Amino acid sequence: xxxxxxxxxxxxxxxxxxxxxxxxxxxxxxxxxxxxxxxxxxxxxxxxxxxxxxxxxxxxxxxxxxxxxxxxxxxxxxxxxxxxxxxxxxxxxxxxxxxxxxxxxxxxxxxxxxxxxxxxxxxxxxxxxxxxxxxxxxxxxxxxxxxxxxxxxxxxxxxxxxxxxxxxxxxxxxxxxxxxxxxxxxxxxxxxxxxxxxxxxxxxxxxxxxxxxxxxxxxxxxxxxxxxxxxxxxxxx
Length: 237
Ligand code: SF4
What we know:
The structure is a single chain. 39% of the residues lie in helices and 14% in strands. By secondary structure, the protein is an alpha+beta fold. It folds into 2 domains: 3-134, no CATH class; 139-232, no CATH class. Strands 1-6-5 form a 3-stranded antiparallel β-sheet, with no helix packed on it. Strands 2-7 form a two-stranded antiparallel sheet. Helix 6 crosses helix 7 (196-215). Iron/sulfur cluster (SF4) binds next to loops.
């Protein structure tokens, strides 16, 4: 997608009427963070571990799979089959969101997919558009995971000790919300929260704890860190 121009803040006049042509669900890499995977997994009655394996590229948990025609794997004959839990980029399309390291937010308008039936309007504001697409929980989760990734990057620059994941009851893949929570709660002898928002908050708490441990030098093993970071980083950052 081409970036047409930059704009900010959320009170800028903006509107977009979707024509329900589904063209924007083709030819796109839909990046997902652990919260978005959690939403989609619950929608399908799966764990995040099962969802990542079944519905993301190579089971890596980074991008939703696409069919041979380039369409998102969740596009059905009548549109999105996971609409209530669709990822942030789908909710805010055709807006692009950019957040600087200091938290400053700006928005860009993206060129609609060729021959898309959608129409830009100036009725309402960006804030209205976000509210109408129930984007707030997704924006918050994106910011929270991006914050963790930035902390991790700083820690890794300061100390090449890794976010290593072997032993000590710590799961191998920190980006996988459910397996991380299962291992953590088992080790701590505490009950798992069932609510997804609470699970997301616990997942972030574990990630930050892990970073604090790494920064404190309590883990001496060398592990490869870049893959772990890239898996956690979702959209919105
Ligand atoms: S998740 Fe739904 S809205 Fe997003 S690209 Fe896939 S089919 Fe389209």
